[in-house]
């Protein structure tokens, strides 16, 4: 698990996807991360710069600068919340959707190469066990933080 976390921390799939873009694309890993966050989070709620900062675990002013850069590059657009007209939201533009689709293609290719020698039964078993692991970890994390005395997650609850 530690090795997987290190690989994900290095954002190896994003690095592969970025390396496949044309010269002069101007994209950085942090740009890619925010496009992915807006794409995913935007499926079930409005996305604000604050929610981007929280998910990226970065300062809101840094998130604001990156979002502004993505707006200039035509990947994101700013809008007004339908729930609260005082709140600004960000959404993907067509170019942002294309960039996210590129990342998803790369992700599927990487996983496909990784699993190409696995049997259908192995893949199915892995999928079930990994889903169970993530679900159980997600459900138990708040209690673990509380029981083990961590203040970090408790303040987020």
UniProtKB/TrEMBL annotation:
<feature type="domain" description="HTH marR-type">
    <location>
        <begin position="1"/>
        <end position="135"/>
    </location>
</feature>
<dbReference type="InterPro" id="IPR039422">
    <property type="entry name" value="MarR/SlyA-like"/>
</dbReference>
<dbReference type="Pfam" id="PF12802">
    <property type="entry name" value="MarR_2"/>
</dbReference>
<dbReference type="InterPro" id="IPR000835">
    <property type="entry name" value="HTH_MarR-typ"/>
</dbReference>
<protein>
    <submittedName>
        <fullName>Winged helix-turn-helix transcriptional regulator</fullName>
    </submittedName>
</protein>
<dbReference type="InterPro" id="IPR036390">
    <property type="entry name" value="WH_DNA-bd_sf"/>
</dbReference>
<dbReference type="InterPro" id="IPR036388">
    <property type="entry name" value="WH-like_DNA-bd_sf"/>
</dbReference>
<dbReference type="GO" id="GO:0006950">
    <property type="term" value="P:response to stress"/>
</dbReference>
<dbReference type="GO" id="GO:0003700">
    <property type="term" value="F:DNA-binding transcription factor activity"/>
</dbReference>
């Amino acid at each position: 698990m530690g090795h997987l976390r290190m690989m994900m921390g290095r954002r190896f799939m994003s690095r592969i996807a970025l390396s496949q873009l044309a010269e002069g694309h101007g994209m950085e890993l942090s740009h890619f991360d925010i496009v992915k966050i807006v794409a995913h989070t935007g499926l079930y709620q409005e996305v604000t710069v604050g929610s981007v900062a929280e998910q990226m675990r970065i300062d809101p002013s840094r998130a604001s600068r990156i979002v502004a850069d993505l707006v200039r590059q035509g990947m994101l657009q700013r809008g007004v919340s339908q729930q609260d007209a005082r709140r600004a939201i960000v959404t993907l533009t067509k170019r942002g959707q294309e960039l996210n689709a590129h990342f998803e293609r790369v992700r599927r290719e990487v996983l496909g190469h990784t699993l190409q020698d696995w049997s259908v039964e192995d893949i199915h078993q892995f999928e079930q066990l990994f889903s169970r692991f993530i679900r159980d970890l997600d459900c138990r994390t708040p209690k673990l933080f509380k029981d083990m005395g961590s203040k970090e997650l408790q303040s987020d609850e």
